[in-house]
Amino acid sequence: MNTYDQLYIDGGEKAVQFPSPHYVWPLVSEECIQEVHDYLVERKPLSISDVSGVVEELEELIKDYFSSNYVLTTNSGSNALHASYIALDLPVGSEIIVPVSTFHASITPAIHCGLTPILVDVEEDNGNISPAGLIDAITPNTSCVVVTHLWGHPAEMKEIVDICKQKNIKLIEDCSHAFGSTYQGMKVGTFGDISVFSMQASKTVPAGEGGFLITKHRKYYERACLVGHYRGRSITDVTDPFLKQFAETGYGLKYRIHPLAAVIAKHEFAALADKIKHRDKYVNLLNEAIAKSKGIIAPSVRSHVTMGGHFGYKPTFVENQLFRKGKAITCDEYIEILGNEGVEIHRPSVKPLTHMEIFSKDYVGLEFAKDTWRPILRGPFVGCDKYYKNLLSLPPFISPTSKEIVESYAKAIIKVSNNLSNLEGE
Ligand SMILES: Cc1ncc(COP(=O)(O)O)c(C=O)c1O
C-alpha cells in the first residue's frame, strides 16, 4: 500500500477490481473468426488484384457509408496517404500545411514525395489545426493542407474548405481516428479532395493492417490506383489515355489489401454504427462522473460536431483543485493516484510531431534524405503546448461487455475527487 492509497481509501478497496487489461481490441467476434475460417476453407483468393470478391464487397460498403464515388482499399493508412499525395500530383518542393499534433504517418509519405511539411499550431481545446494558423502559413508555394481529426474530434471543416477553395489549395482529410464523426451533420471524410482512413488494429474499424481512401474525383482515384494497384485494377479502372499506359506496372509499389484483412474489415465496418452507440453510452457515463468531480474536465466537444469511433478518451487534468497534505497535486500524481485505484490511465501515447527526432533533426548524413527532407516548424506552438500539458488518456471502451468496468472507472474518478478536493490548508 502506498501513501496515496492510505490517504483516501474507503474500506481498503480499489474502485476498479477488474483484471487487466480492461480494454482488449480488436475484439474479433466468433462470427468474424467464422467468416475468416470459411473464406479459407472455401479456398477463396488470397490475392486480389482487381475489384472483385471480398475487396469489392468491402469497398461497396464503404462507398454506401460515405456516399462516395470512389474507394480504394490499401494495406495500410500510411500507404493510402502515400497514394493520395501522388494522386494529387503536387509539385515537388511545394509546401503542405499540417497540424503539429498528428501521427507521423500523416506526413512522412509526403516527405518521400519531395513535399515540404509546414507544421502549424493547433486549437488548445481539441488539438486540431487552427484555421488562423493555417491562413498564416499559406505561401505562394503551398499546394495542400492535411487535416487530422484528432482522437475523433472533427476539425473546423467549413472554414478550412473555404480557405482551400479561395486559395486553390488541395485538401486531404486524415480520418484515421474519426470513423463516423460528423461536422455540421456531414460525415468527416466527405470534405477533402481525398480522405484517408487507417484500419490498423487499434482503429474503430480494424482490419489488422489496412486502410482506404475515398474521393469524389475520378482523376484522383485513377492516379491513386496506379501508385500501388498495378495490373488488374489499373487495367480495368484507369481510363485516362495518358495514365493507362502505366497500368501494367503502375508506379512500381504494391499497396493492395490482403483479402483476409478485407474479410475482417468488412465484418467490422458492418458493426460500426453499433460500436459508436456503445462508445457514446460509455463516454456519457464518464462525462457525467467527471462533471461531479474536481481535478478533471471531460474532453471538449464543440456543439456542431459529433464524435464517431473516438481514438482513446482524452479528458484533461485541472491544476489546483486536488490536494495532498495541503499541496496541490500534479498531473503525473493524479495519473498515479487513479492508477492505484485500478484505472488504466496514462499520458497520450501519440506526442506532437515536434517531439519526434525525424521532424526535429536535420538530415545531414542520411543520403536518401539529403536536400529533400525539410519539414519546417512554424512555431511557437502555444495552442499545442496548452492542449497537451495536462492531457490524460483512458481506454476507448467500445465493446458491449465493458459497462461494469466503465462504471467502476466513473466511481474511481469521483472517489479521488471526494477524497482530495477538500484537503487544502491541512
Ligand atoms: C492519424 C493517423 N494517420 C495515419 C496513420 C497510419 O495508419 P497505418 O498505421 O494504418 O499505416 C495513423 C495510425 O495510427 C494515424 O493515427
Structure, described:
Belongs to the DegT/DnrJ/EryC1 family. The chain is α/β, with parallel strands linked by helices and 426 residues long. The protein folds into two domains: 3-25 and 272-352 and 359-420, Aspartate Aminotransferase, domain 1 (Alpha-Beta Complex), CATH 3.90.1150; 30-270, Type I PLP-dependent aspartate aminotransferase-like (Major domain) (Aspartate Aminotransferase, domain 2, 3-Layer(aba) Sandwich), CATH 3.40.640. 37% of the residues lie in helices and 12% in strands. An eight-stranded mixed β-sheet has the order 1-9-8-5-4-2-3-15, with helices on both faces. Strands 7-6-11 form a three-stranded antiparallel β-sheet, with no helix packed on it. Strand 4, helix 7 and strand 5 (170-174) form a beta-alpha-beta unit. It is globular and about 75 Å long. The two termini are 22 Å apart. The structure holds pyridoxal-5'-phosphate. Pyridoxal-5'-phosphate (PLP) binds next to helix 4.
